[in-house]
Amino acid sequence: MTTASKCSILLAFLACACSQLAAQPKERPNIVFVLADDLGIGDVKCYGQERCRIRTPAFDQLAKEGMRFTDAHSAAAVCVPSRVAIMTGRYPWRIQGARDNGPWGFITPRFTPDQFHLGAMFKESGYSTCYIGKWHLGTRMETTDGKTQGPENVDFAKPLKHGPVQLGFDESLILPGSLDMFPYVLIKNGHFQGPVTEQRGWSAFNRVGPTAEHFEDWKVLNTFCTEAESFLERQAKAASKKQPFFLYVALTSPHTPLCPNPSFEGKSTMGVYGDFVMETDDCLRRIMESLKENGLSDNTLL
Fold it and tell me: Quick check: 179 and 276 in contact, CB under 8 A?
């Protein structure tokens, strides 16, 4: 199943969440939204059953304790418009994105801040908001020549002019595009992390482009999971403020490049893809355990 198909399943969850907001109960629920990238429906036990040969205990637990959807329809067949649909609640072909695009992760914004979107909706409803993971909704980067952003002219020492902050997210740690699309650099709260001084590519298509020093593809998933755990811990400590939170975690896995952490290599019987699915499942486990350990499970929609 494509990213788009998984997205459509999760849209139903967001519809439920929005109805909760509309009702405005005395104690509004926290919401954690996790999106796996290119995960096949048969790659998790709760759907694939005996035909699935990959162990996915966290996904299975979530399905057992919550809801499992069996009839879903995608808004688009590929990544970017699917993510636009999730973020805006609209068919992506109804929205006119910017046309001055750079390549791959240098694409410009898919919609403007005045378009309805989740960040603003939760922000206006009094939520603390955070986006972690793959972005691929377009950015505006500072350029050295005033022209369309691309591999040759971005000033990586300057903060983003448009990104999650401009779309209602208080905190963010993102990858601009996919893990197999340059630039290979994380952006935290609008600021590029580390000097972007190298030119590298990755195993999937070897797209060589601007890369941050010490950037390694297999470290990214763990970095995002750790950031999510840190956010949940901070929210638990700030619980006395009675402010609910919305956390969007857009995983880069198991999309290419297939780059499981070394601790997951050989864990499955399905090769490197199976190993990567198991690490994806473990990310969900970590988020679930973090909610429990921080006393947030009872009032959080996951």
Answer: no
Is the Cβ–Cβ distance between 123 and 130 less than 8 Å? no
In single-letter form, the type of residue at position 179 comes to: L
Q: Which residues contact 207 (CB under 8 A, 6 or more apart)?
A: 104, 180, 181, 182, 201
Structure tokens at 192: 């590029």
Rounded Cα distance, 164 and 133, in Å: 11
Strand intervals (E) in 117-162: 128-134
- Are 279 and 260 contacting, i.e. CB atoms less than 8 angstroms apart? yes
The SS3 call for residue 280 is: helix
CA-CA distance, 17 to 279, in Å (whole number)?
27
Per residue in 11-33, pLDDT tens? Answer: 555 555 555 555 555 689 999 99
CA angle 281, 251, 237 (to 5 degrees): 85
